[in-house]
Design a protein that fits this description.
Helices cover about 20% and strands about 45% of the residues. By secondary structure, it is of the alpha+beta class. It has one domain: Alpha-Beta Barrel (Multidrug-efflux Transporter 1 Regulator Bmrr, Chain A), CATH 3.20.80.
Length: about 150
């Protein structure tokens, strides 16, 4: 897998949720299902789903983490009732594409972390971003999604 240094910003609208890391495999799909039911009603949505994972405690089963299940929007979108916005100005990320089933994504994160350290970069305490494009299908071995890891 290859990594690429990119400068990118994100503007998105969706649902915020917090739960224990051990509950992520159940809660994240439920939050995205809720989003997909109404995504077409979000003004100026661009048809790209994105997850933002909050900085905080290292993942452990009983540690509570925060994430957003969102769709990208242009910067003039109004905020629908009950939804949250996420705006990350353009900043440096290391981007890597995860290829394969979603349950194997930890392997890609481990590769990305190792590559960042080998290249002399440092992690930035900020939101980790996953962008799900047309090639994303959680249980398909050919699935793809892009991971954006914030770096200094």
């Amino acid at each position: 897998m290859t990594c690429e240094l990119v400068k990118k910003g994100f503007n998105a609208i969706g649902f915020k949720n917090s739960c224990c890391f051990k509950d992520y495999p159940l809660e994240i799909p439920k939050t995205f299902s809720k989003l997909m039911e109404i995504a077409h009603e979000i003004p100026h949505e661009e048809g790209v789903t994105v997850a933002f994972y909050g900085p905080g405690e290292p993942p452990a089963p009983d540690v509570v983490g925060t994430y957003y299940a969102t769709v990208l929007v242009d910067d003039t979108s109004p905020l629908p009732e009950g939804m949250s916005s996420v705006m990350i100005p353009a900043r440096k990320f290391m981007r890597m594409t995860h290829k394969g089933e979603i349950h194997k994504i930890r392997e890609t994160y481990d590769e990305l972390d190792a590559w960042i350290a080998e290249q002399g970069y440092e992690h930035e305490y900020d939101w980790i971003v996953e962008v799900y494009g047309e090639k994303f299908s959680p249980t398909c071995p050919d699935s793809e999604l892009d991971i954006y890891m914030p770096i200094k």
